[in-house]
Amino acid sequence: MAHQFFFNPYILDNLALPSRGFDVVQDVSEPRLRMYITSRGVKTFFVRKRINGRDRRVIIGKYPDMDIEDARSAVNTVLDDASKKIPVKRKKILFRDFIKMYLKNRVHRSIGSYDKLVRSINHHLTGLFDKNVSDITADDIRDIIGAIGGVAIAVRMQELLQSVFKYAIETGYVKENPVLSVPRPEQVRRVRPLNKYGLRRLVDAIKNSDDAVCRAAFLMLVYGFATKNQVFSMQWADLDFNRYMWGEMPLSDMAVVLLQDLPQDGYWVFPGRGHGHLTDPRLAWLRVVDAAGIPNLTMDDVHKFVSHRLVWAGDREDLRNNMNELLDELLAAD
User: Fold this and answer.
1) Do 251 and 289 sit in the same domain of this protein?
2) How far apart are CA 14 and CA 247, in angstroms?
3) Predicted confidence band of residue 275 (pLDDT cuts 50, 70, 90)
4) Domain range enclosing 101
5) Does the structure show a pLDDT above 80 at 173?
6) Which residue has the higher pLDDT, 110 or 243?
7) CA 247, CA 46: separation in Å to the nearest integer?
């Protein structure tokens, strides 16, 4: 049974990710509305519908691209549409024209992300452009995917094609999805090289760093339970030490002590060169992880390690207590 609660941005933004596969949660306000949460952080609204005796999952949209209220409002329409029999179109359409229609109607991204996707399509899928969508076979898909250098890119392109042909079925241009019969390229998942003993060595190495700004920013990666981009772009105006809050996020005790010791004489908590904030201190990070004896560790590894172990709670004080207890457990000497 899916875990049930009232969907709101604060809880959905801070849901713990599963270690593998996906979890499902259900909205109390609209019980038919559910959400997939994958181990890679993708959150997708969907509904279930029994059609012709088979249980189907119908995707509504991805969060946060789709607002929660919009997803709730779309439930009835999506369920009604799922029950309709799709007429098969006799008119053919070239893949180049169909992919434009797919991008217009199904892809909702930021401008930069959208442009990057279009470049990937133009680079990797041109071999399909002059074929009619209904004439593309599993062998065509296999040849296109096999010609892509890099397993990760090949997997993403295959996932995209699977979504494209699913849309082609929904719009009546094809009857079957040829991508489903093409085996996926084997992808070796990266093992994140961190445990609590490594975390302690990392914190010790950070504290011995000569760069004061990077030292504080790297410690905040551990104490703040936030991504590196969120940490590096922190603003003093967003911090409320009277309530121990960072915007809508509570601050752990260690984070409060760290931040209160910093000079509050600028706009950014962690200033970079010029007038901006700290952006990509990779050389300083490499020195730290080398000193800690974990040379392959990334800043994202640290965020995922602490965030996956945190018990997220809707109440801010409960969440803050959980932060403090986890940091005490991870960093206390045995």
Assistant:
1) yes
2) 14
3) confident
4) 95-181
5) yes
6) 243
7) 30
Q: Which amino acid is at 32?
A: R
Per DSSP, the chain holds a count of helices (H) and strands (E) of: 13, 8
The answer as to whether 40 is a domain residue is yes
CA 116/CA 114 separation, integer angstroms: 5
Query: Are 52 and 113 part of one and the same domain?
Result: no
Q: pTM of the entire structure?
A: 0.51
Taking the CB of residue 146, how many other CB atoms lie within 10 A of it? 10
Sheet with strand 239-240: strands edge to edge: 239-240, 245-246, 249-250
Note whether 148 and 105 are same-domain residues.
yes
Q: In this structure, what CATH number is given to the domain that contains residue 78?
A: 3.30.160.390
Question: Of the candidates 101, 108, 109, which has an alpha carbon nearest to the alpha carbon of residue 171?
Answer: 101
d(CA 35, CA 26): 6
Strand partners, 43: 37, 63
Q: What is the mean pLDDT of residues 198-203?
A: 95
Residue 5's DSSP bridge partners are: 27
